[in-house]
Amino acid sequence: MSAYNDLMGFQKTTEALGSVAGRLNWDQETIMPEGASAQRGEELSAMETVLHARRTDPRVGDWLAAIDVNSLDQVGKANLRHITKSYARNTKVPAALAAEIAKVTSMAQGVWAEARATDNFAHFAPTFERVVALKREEASALADGGDLYDAMLQDYEPGSSAAELSAMFGALRPRLTALRDKVLGADQPKGVSGTFDADAQMALTREVAKSFGYDFNRGRIDKAVHPFSSGSGADVRITTRTSDDDPFNCLYSTIHEVGHACYELGIDDQHMFTPLGAGVSMGVHESQSRIYENQLGRSRAYTEYLYGKMRDSFGDFGIESAEGFYAAVNRVTQGFIRTESDEIQYNLHVLLRFDLEQKIINGSLEIADLPEAWNARFEADFGVKVDKVSNGCLQDVHWPVGLFGYFPTYSLGNVYAGCLNQALRGDVPDLDTALRTGNTAPATDWLRENLQQFGGLRTPNDTISHACGFKPNEVPLLEYLEEKFNGIYGL
């Protein structure tokens, strides 16, 4: 076991340094001074240089070669699987390229924010072209002559392929579109009205986060342009945002990010600073954020609890009953922004991005033509003309920071969440009784016991299959959505 122990000791320091780099990214998106972006780019580049050197250290290869896999238990074998994959990946990517990607994507985030704020795609286009060129170069190094986009997918959903995802998404699209068209043709429920104080929203959102088990002793909530979760182990932070006329933006962004955070916080402490000490994939991660936000947070039972909290915080906001509030929370309306979309249309937003980013990577879509391609596809899918690039191809931060292959994991996470919800409801049939009082513990405990505690122990597919007792597929999600929205809209 000497080689294994030496490898894990080395890996512990690498994981800790990775956490430090993550904290630099969190700081950049929350409280870093605007003028520090160039310096932060150099800092992140330096960190990436150190991390890349450790991840490609020849001793890692020697240790891996010396370890007898059959002498390891399940945890040891899983650690070895992750380290072997990481070593193989990182030794294919030149250190200078890894550092340059870290530097350019860090600076690109600031340029994107400026372009988004001024609706000026031309301001961002040259930087974006540089990001895409670097990511193509990285993918080429990783693909070994194979498909560049499939190589990118492995960073976010190991074992997946564009062909498999396209088949799953192709099965989702017809039923989602049919349900969307029926719902938009029905009478729409009343929405909230009034002005919602930002400080009151933040106070309520912290209370809501606690109701889902978020541990403020090991986390915090700050504001950011694009809500996100960051960290692992005993330090997992989230961000949200407020809108004067839309309190749901704040509340449900928070619940979503709490789902991500609770996954990380729920991992068994024995895995801290090992490859198993983080979520196994972005699809599995998204399954946690989406089941917290939607199947739990937007359920009839939990919204009954939240309705009372809203009235305590804001008084009269135009909704007369808990049932009306449930309908308002789940309203299906046409809009441009993915993160503000309802459960039915959300996946259609993702499928648009999935298709376009494949074209960007394979070179069939030039960066200069992206706004026009986006707008044409959006109008075809949603029947609405995009009015400005901040509502179109500049709305998300993912492409600016090089996260190609990330978007499909959102829809995959929704599929996983549908499966988990079916299994959860089967095991905890009286769940709604607890949710009506704001007690989510029966659900969050089930998720922690059956999925979260294991971190990266199993592959993504096996993680979901272990929790649910069946292989993941799109049918539970579609059945859940059709039952829910047919009920709300009386279809």
From TrEMBL:
Binding residues for Zn(2+): H256, H260, E286
Keyword line: Carboxypeptidase, Hydrolase, Metal-binding, Metalloprotease, Protease, Zinc
Cofactor binding note from Swiss-Prot or TrEMBL: Binds 1 zinc ion per subunit.
Record's catalysed reaction(s): Release of a C-terminal amino acid with broad specificity, except for -Pro
Cofactor: Zn(2+)
Gene Ontology biological process terms in this record: proteolysis
MF-aspect GO terms: metal ion binding; metallocarboxypeptidase activity
EC id: 3.4.17.19
Source species, domain of life: Bacteria
Active site: residue positions: E257 (proton donor/acceptor)
CDD domains linked: M32_Taq
InterPro entries the record matches: Peptidase_M32_Taq
Family: Belongs to the peptidase M32 family.
UniProt-listed PANTHER family: CARBOXYPEPTIDASE 1, METAL-DEPENDENT CARBOXYPEPTIDASE
Described function: Broad specificity carboxypetidase that releases amino acids sequentially from the C-terminus, including neutral, aromatic, polar and basic residues.
Name the UniProt record assigns to this protein: Metal-dependent carboxypeptidase
Species of the source: Pacificibacter marinus
